[in-house]
Design brief:
Length: 383
């Protein structure tokens, strides 16, 4: 059996069309988009075309609301730190959740430690959902920013962002969502969602690594986090990564065209995988909700086993999966997400995340289940 890749939540392969679209921008259309000469103007036009494609992917009305970044982590940092600093005279209270990506949590820690902001972390229920009423109850007169991820990168919980963002809007509070995981899995419409800031990363939807974007609704002020030139309408200094931006734009076009087909296939594969797991194993637990879940996410625990041992054995059988998120890979401690949902110890240390892609097949799932049966049986015999 060839290598089976079930770690698409960590990264996805760049689509062939994306690679082809990028090639001319290495040595043909290579001028700096900020230059005024003709080659520079040609490069600038390509950059703006890419910006337009990303805007269309998320339903932004204006392409200038898209700020290119070096990835989702930088987009989160710019959103949190930039908005907080720009609005600090109005208040210094930020609300987020305890299950956010570390790019959000660490940005909040920075604001708290170095700039005196107060951070409230909302808890979640056993399936990872935020309670909108709890959000309402924690809003203060000095609350200036709320950040809740659109869907969890570990357990796949899809948050009620539209409802949560409506609470923020009713109270005239800026709302940010880390939407890195939902791009390529769910339809995104920033206006329907009521969000003011939204983070994306191209390599999560078959684009290149090293490029991301932050949607910044018109009228939202940010303090730039990278100082220098006036690129990105003075919101992010540095020579534009034109080649990667073109790749992200092409990936956005592909997603926009094929999203319904992709969602249908992912949902079918996910449903089949989960049913096969529960048909073949005792003492397992699906972490996160069965409904309102990312269609690519299957996070499963095997009672009283160790995730690292399972992953090592899967790897020996050419199967790639993950324990928790890629950002926490290598850590033997239980992830902050699993702790927050109250997963019992006998299940928490054995959580394995399988994340599906459009290229995966039922035959691959059958192979994975078969190998898992052999692995789990062997590991249990060693106890």
């Amino acid at each position: 059996m060839k290598n089976i890749y079930l770690d698409h939540a960590a990264t996805t392969p760049a689509a062939e069309e994306v690679i082809e679209a990028m090639k001319p921008f290495y040595n043909e259309i290579y001028a700096n988009p900020a230059s005024s000469h003709f080659p520079g103007q040609k490069a600038a036009a390509a950059l703006e075309d890419a910006r337009e494609s990303v805007a269309e992917l998320i339903g932004a009305k204006k392409a200038e609301e898209i700020v290119f970044t070096a990835g989702g982590t930088e987009a989160d940092n710019l959103a949190l730190k930039g908005a907080a600093m720009a609005n600090s005279e109005e208040g210094k209270h930020i609300i987020t959740t305890a299950v956010e990506h570390h790019a959000v949590l660490k940005s909040c820690e920075y604001l708290e430690k170095h700039l005196g902001f107060e951070i409230t972390q909302l808890g979640v229920d056993q399936e990872g959902f935020v309670n909108p009423q709890e959000l309402k109850d924690n809003i203060r007169n000095d609350t200036i920013l709320i950040s809740v991820m659109a869907a969890n990168n570990e357990i796949g919980t899809i948050q009620p962002i539209k409802e949560l963002a409506a609470v923020a809007r009713e109270n005239n509070i800026i709302f940010h969502t880390d939407a890195v995981q939902i791009a390529g899995q769910l339809k995104i419409d920033v206006n329907d969602m009521n969000v003011d800031l939204l983070s994306l990363s191209a390599h999560k939807f078959n684009g290149p690594k090293g490029i991301g974007a932050l949607f910044v609704r018109k009228g939202i002020e940010l303090v730039p986090q990278i100082s220098g030139g006036s690129q990105e309408r003075k919101r992010r200094a540095g020579t534009a990564n034109l080649t990667a931006a073109v790749g992200m734009g092409k990936a956005a076009e592909i997603v926009s065209t094929n999203l319904d087909k992709k969602i249908t296939k992912l949902c079918s594969l996910q449903d089949y995988f989960i049913k096969e797991l529960f048909s073949n194993f005792d003492e397992i637990k699906l972490n996160g909700p069965r409904e309102q879940r990312l269609p690519a996410n299957v996070n499963i625990s095997f009672k009283n086993l160790d995730a690292e041992s399972i992953l090592f054995n899967l790897s020996l059988n050419n199967i790639a999966a993950a324990a928790g998120s890629a950002c926490a890979s290598g850590s033997l401690s239980v992830s902050h997400v699993l702790k927050e949902i109250g997963l019992k110890k006998e299940y928490a240390k054995s959580a394995v995340r399988f994340s599906l892609g459009f290229s995966n097949t039922k035959e691959e799932i059958d192979y994975v289940v078969q190998k898992l049966k052999e692995i789990i049986e062997r590991l249990k015999s060693l106890q």
